[in-house]
Amino acid sequence: MKFIPKVSFKEDLKSEGFECVDLQEFCNRDWSKYEPHTPYFPHRVDFYVLLIITKGSVKHKVDFQEFLVNENECLIISPNQIHELNAESDYHGYFIFFTKEYLLNYFTPNTYFHISQLFNYHIFKPIYQLDECMMDYANRVATEYSNSRYVLKYQIIASLFSIILYKLNNRNLLYSEGITKQGFEVFEKFRNLIESKYSQSRNVNDYSDMMNISYKHLNEICKRFTHRTAKEFLDDYIILEIKRKLSSTTLSIKEICFDTGFDEPTNFNKYFKKLTGITPLEFRTELN
User: Fold this and answer.
1) Is the pLDDT of residue 172 over 70?
2) Among candidates 75, 53, 72, which has minimal Cα distance to 63?
3) Are 58 and 197 in the same domain?
4) Is residue 1 part of a domain?
5) Domain count along the chain
6) Confidence grade of residue 174 (pLDDT, cut at 50, 70, 90)
7) pTM: predicted TM-score of the whole model, two decimal places
């Protein structure tokens, strides 16, 4: 079983927390010295990614789902998601990599709140159509990043890049009736609790108690943001984490069972098969 590595942001670029890379240049790099840990094998990132296609198309896997990204579209990848690049397609465009610290450094707290929704893969789909203005700004970002000699280079880039993020987020706002900052904060608290407590409880009532709100209110908030019940959202998260462990670690299925909070393998197997249609062993076997 191959270990799926976690890729961190480049150490020499961490101070700014931003990088824009031409896809052709990226794909033509000599990745042989990194095998099997190349971008064409599954890996995690601890930063944000925008994949913008200017010509052609590419199939890109994110958390075990394959997405087709066409010309004038972008794919959003969030920290800790597992993804892999397709080596067979002929495509052009850009990778834009940036960190949470970059967003906090160049955007106001209120703006960060709106942008963070964009990268919450539990809420919105990751593919977006880019209009002519957004593509123009993407090209400007790439040009400034490669050629600018201004002292305030990164401030200029942040201004240009902000237009892309604002317009992307505005698409979400147009289709997010009922989403409020207060509601989002409740949802985020629920999501963060799940991330830290999912191995301790699969009971939504436990989470509503920890949040000091009713089960009914939590359920309504969750349906408003994800079109899933709180229980369905919790189960989806747990299944995704199990899949990540099955694919990215050499832990045995029994070890993953206990690591994710199940008291014995039979219940673990039944839970996974009920929600996916296959057993954990079958899922792991399909990956090889």
Assistant:
1) no
2) 75
3) no
4) no
5) 2
6) very low
7) 0.79
